[in-house]
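Recall that a protein's primary structure is simply its ordered list of amino acids. Everything else, from secondary elements to tertiary packing, is in principle encoded there. The following example makes that idea concrete.
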Amino acid sequence: MEAGRSTKLMPMDAATTLAISAPTSLDERDSFAMTFAPLSLDEVYQLADDAANGAIVVMSGMVRNQTDGKPVVALEYQAYEPMAIEVFKQIATQIRQKWTDVTRVVIHHRTGKLGIGEISVLVAVGCPHRTEAFEACQFAIDTLKHNAPIWKKEHWADGSTSWVSIGACEQPGSDC
């Protein structure tokens, strides 16, 4: 700016400020988490609940006792957490663009070593209609598995281990 010249700033109203400062496709009532602590179905369901919902679809991913017929005793999850949360937010944005009636999106994922039967991921979508809730929930978990920087280490019954990017679970013939 040249000396002696000034620029007059025009005031913005609250609606303009909100539109500039917050993405319109994200909802502050959505919930995203990467945590070492056990996940709670009840908590995730409550976070997805809304008076406008006609359906809440919850997908619970858990540690099973085998992969491709090979006995598994535990899974260990690691993640680049800040980027994973951003991927979760992107998933919610994409959901709201495709299924505009969605009221809530909840994505919580564990890290650390989990035993057989423990919940590793919970995805919940609240929506006025069940079809959209099912479709959006499936989109969320499929996209998360493909895009989130989360890796799992499979602990086999024979004492061996192997690391797998969960995105690899989407490859044809995979049984992750």
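The chain has a mean pLDDT of 85. The radius of gyration is 20 Å.
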